[in-house]
Amino acid sequence: MSSHRLTQVALLAFVVMALSVFAISCGGSKANVRIEATPISSPAAVDVTTAPAITRDLPRFFEATGSLAGDQQTDVAPSIAGKVIAVGVDLGSYVKRGQMIVRLDDVDSKLRVAQAQAQVEQAKAGLRQAEEKVGLRPARAFDPTRVPEVANARVALELAEKNLRRSEKLIESGDVSRSLYDQQKAQRDQFKEQYESALSLARQNYAGVMTARANVANAETQLGLARRALSYALVFSPIDGYVAERNADLGEYVSPTSKVATVVRINPLRIRIDIPEQAISEVRVGQSVSVTTNAWPDKNFRGRIARISPNVTASSRTLSVEADIENSGGSLKPGQFATVRILQSRSQPAVLIPARAVHTESGVNRVFVIRDGKAEQRLVQLGQSESDLVEVKSGVAAGEQVATSNVEQMSDGIAVRQ
After folding, report:
1. pLDDT tens-digit profile of 66-80?
2. Whole-model pTM?
3. Fold of 50-58+350-417
């Protein structure tokens, strides 16, 4: 009896367990059926505005970048050494050519000028004395026969010559003895030597005049150098411009190797760019250019091509071009990075879309073309800008409608409402 009851209990427990497993299995299947039957919700349509891609002839230009530089820039240094006793400018000051930048102590220079002036006067006195010896007068050429000593010796010689000739005639007739004739001849020879000696002395004295004149010229040169050194005590600006650097302070000792200031002229400014070899024929002196900078993104500055290099760079096959940029307002500064556009002579057709239609992410430009109520994503290559439009070189055809609003909310294939 006991064994039979245990068997029944075990069988009943097995049946109950089997029914429980069956019930769980049935419940799970029904749950799966209910989940699979739940419908998937589709994304909501995005409201957009659209604009057509249009075709327009665009003026073409070359675009290049470079750094702005001053039209002229000079480092100002003194010509002599000295202590700074006055400073006439500061950083950013506008200076005219010839305006004082610094002044050096000039006491020693003034003393040297006074000393040189005294030497000039002394040399002139020596010249006057030398001229008096040879009888020179203003605006009269040197003639040794006008020297008094030479003139007296010549008179004595001429008289002795006359007496000798008279004695020669008388000695033939016997009226004059031979001894008297010899005496007069000896006297004539003596006066001739005296005359030649006087001439030689006069020429020597005239050489002294030339030496005195050279002394005067040398003294005047020294005076000029002293005056010039005195003028160097004032250090002037060599150009019109602005003070970009001021390196000298009051009381500082400076030398000719010391830079006291840097002056730069900022109107016009210069910029150098490189033009591709294939575009050389499109560039000429006087051609208009426009410049933009990060500091003034919405402003164009006008200029013109002023200089063209005669050589093409062999390594890059580019031509260096310099342009002068008008900067009368002083908005641009030397050293700024700038973009230069050089307008070409011909225009070309281009496909344009509104700039707001372009969605840029991680350097990739996307546009959504609207077709049959859906957005189609296109990757595009952009060209130059024209007002609020931008050129599309590839990816969009003329006439296609592009989304111009909510482009950041869109994806490829999404439904849209216009």
Report:
1. 999 998 999 999 999
2. 0.56
3. 2.40.420
